[in-house]
Amino acid sequence: MLDFLQWFRVKKNLSPGSLVYAGSPKDFTPTLRLLSYSKDTLREETVTLDQCANLAADQTHLLMLSGIHDADMVKHVGQCFSLHALLLEDAMNTGSRPKLERTEDGVFILLKDVCFNPAEEWVVLQEQVSLYLKDNVVLVMQEAEHGPWDGLVDRIRKGKGRLRSAGAPYLAVALIDALMDRHYALLGIMSLKAEEIEAELDVRQNEDLLKKLYRLRREATLLRNSVMPIKDCLVELKRSEDDLFGEEVLPFLQDVRDHAAQVAEATGTLNELLTGILELQISLAGMRMNNVMRLLTMVATIFIPLTFLAGIYGMNFEVMPEIGWKYGYPALLGVMALTAIGMVLYFKRKDWL
Predict the structure, then answer these.
(1) pTM as predicted
(2) Distance CA 285, CA 118 (A)
(3) Are 204 and 67 in contact (CB under 8 A)?
(4) Do strands 42-46 and 60-66 pair parallel, antiparallel, or not at all (unpaired)?
(5) pLDDT digit string (tens) for 194-229?
(6) pLDDT tens digits for 106-130?
(7) Widest CA span in the chain
(8) Domains and CATH numbers, the chain
(9) How far is CA 164 from CA 40, 41, 169, in A?
(10) Strand ranges of the sheet holding 42-46, from the earlier edge strand across to the other edge
(11) Measuring CA to CA, which residue among 271, 234, 274 is closest to residue 255?
């Protein structure tokens, strides 16, 4: 079942804004981690909901909620930042289309994290990720227990780059860029798999390879459907007329937007290539079948007159021309041979053979 259809199934008969999780079951307890930093200070800890209300104004704060399957946790985190219930509903709806929503004093972005599912071969796992940027705080709500932020958090800890001094808007851009890097990595793996399948199909065609090719094409199509809205979100964010992103951050936002556009184009290209490979294999299979049928048809056509001649001289009548002729048998074989050769030459002249 498609993700958004799963959402409508669990949301049936509930009012708008109801917080219902529609993703795959999770067996971990949601956690709330806070990373507060400035150019010279850094504090990292697991916090409670009460601690989210009073965050220092002179620091940048990255608040990460791991696990959106707990409706009460999501509701209370949303209340800390005055997020509308419909936005929280979207955050818990794992089938939501990536989108951008503006609030009075911030921006809410719904995105997807992607990777190959370790539990199921050839299946791309898409996890829900929501970002909310407000003042000096970036709130991240992610479906998975472990997000794609390890490299970015490590850079903050080590004080590398401009993260420690660039503020929350730059942090939000860096988080989105980390997601785009995950899309790049996934596309690289999918492209290699496609090349391997194509190389194997050039050697031999079998049912298992075609099934793998179809599954890969299916995942590429689903990936394209999630990447295109992300690109649109970043285009809209780049066109924003508010002052959330200063002049020093806009070039980095433009760079991430370009990455998203490139990922979207690459995903579409990969999908078209996989479709072309699949159609080529179907065409080749049809051509092989046609060649076999043509050969069998020609063999059968050649033997029709020979069978006719053999049938006539196998009727065993007492009075029959050439029945007592000494050379009757070799003469009949010669006629059959000439008939077969003549038909083969005719087929070659018509380019049927």
Answers:
(1) 0.79
(2) 33
(3) no
(4) unpaired
(5) 888 888 888 887 888 888 888 888 888 888 888 888
(6) 899 999 888 877 667 777 888 889 9
(7) 120
(8) 3-284 (3.30.460.20), 290-349 (1.20.58.340)
(9) 8, 9, 12
(10) 42-46, 31-37, 60-66, 137-142, 124-134, 106-116, 99-102
(11) 234
